[in-house]
Amino acid sequence: MNSSPVRRSIRLCGSQAAQALVPGACLTSLAVFRHSCYLQTPDQSIVCLLDDLNVPGPLHVLCRLPGNFDWTAHLQPGQQGVVSDTGILLNKLFFFYSQSTSIWQPPRLATPDPDTVQTALRCLQTYLAAGRPPAEQAAQESGLGVFILPLLRGTLAEFIPTTPVAAAATGGIQALHAWLYADARPDWVAPDWVAPDSVIRLLGLGPGLTPSGDDFLVGLWVSLHALGWHTAANRLAAQIIPLAGNYTNLISLAHLRCAAQGQAAAPLHCLLQVLYTAPAAMPEAVAALTAVGHSSGWDSLAGIVLATMAYTHNPQH
């Protein structure tokens, strides 16, 4: 006799995940880790099941799970699930019911005052220049976090990368820096603008589930939208997103697509809110963001700094 599937509730569902989880949708487990499970729909939409102690995000489905729950003990890549009117049946073992689920959306931020942002950036520079614990320093230096202080100090042209990942990213970051710092003019995001190869090479750059180059672009895109530079963000997306599948994995591509629409995990949006409105809370916001992944938080912070420094240089874009 088959036993009934174990029932668990879904506490919070990201807005992009909610759009993918339509009744009748078939699901396939794409990647399974101890603390997370990525599911894919036939149209390659991605959702990520996590326990509800994790941070919200556009693709995240936060489920109420036991503290010692291990996805790899119950699920393997390639196994099936289906969405019903009331939840997700996964591998006939678990039913995640959604009757009381809330939908998460990132907060809407008012376009910030450039003077306030400049003050916040000086606070960020002071905080980061004070040094990091060895483990944090190693995480920052392993990816594109090494660009944060040169961007804040305005010394990017003098920066000499010391790791292969940073060296490979330098041309692309310099190209984006030059583009975003360009003098304001009606055609600064003209339809014939083409992202150079150095920018394209940021896609999939570095190791990990979400490579450093992708995380940098996530921070950049979400910041551009938050700053009101929607035309620039959309123009960059039009150049990058159609090519991204050739350079990065499906999971990172899904995160890039969300970022191109202005959405990322909650700690990134919280840092932007602090950066634009409450500089005194900077240490806590930086700690929360840089705790994401190994270097992912640092990589995305570098993208945030590039966009925000460009905004203070020329806010009329």
Layout of SSEs?
Blueprint: E1 6-14, H1 15-20, E2 26-32, E3 36-40, E4 46-51, E5 60-63, E6 80-83, E7 87-90, E8 94-97, E9 102-104, H2 114-129, H3 134-142, H4 148-153, H5 164-180, H6 197-200, H7 212-226, H8 230-244, H9 250-260, H10 266-277, H11 282-290, H12 296-313
Parallel strand pairs: 1-8, 1-9, 4-5
Antiparallel strand pairs: 1-5, 2-3, 2-6, 3-4, 6-7, 7-8
Helix pairs in contact: 2-10, 2-12, 7-8, 7-9, 7-12, 8-9, 10-11, 11-12
How would you portray this structure in words?
The chain is an alpha/beta fold. It contains twelve helices and nine strands. It has an eight-stranded mixed beta barrel with strand order 1-5-4-3-2-6-7-8. A hairpin with a 5-residue loop joins strand 3 and strand 4 (46-51). Helix 7 packs parallel to helix 9 and helix 10 (266-277) packs antiparallel against helix 11. The longest helix is centred in the last third of the chain and has 18 residues, at 296-313. The mean pLDDT is 91.
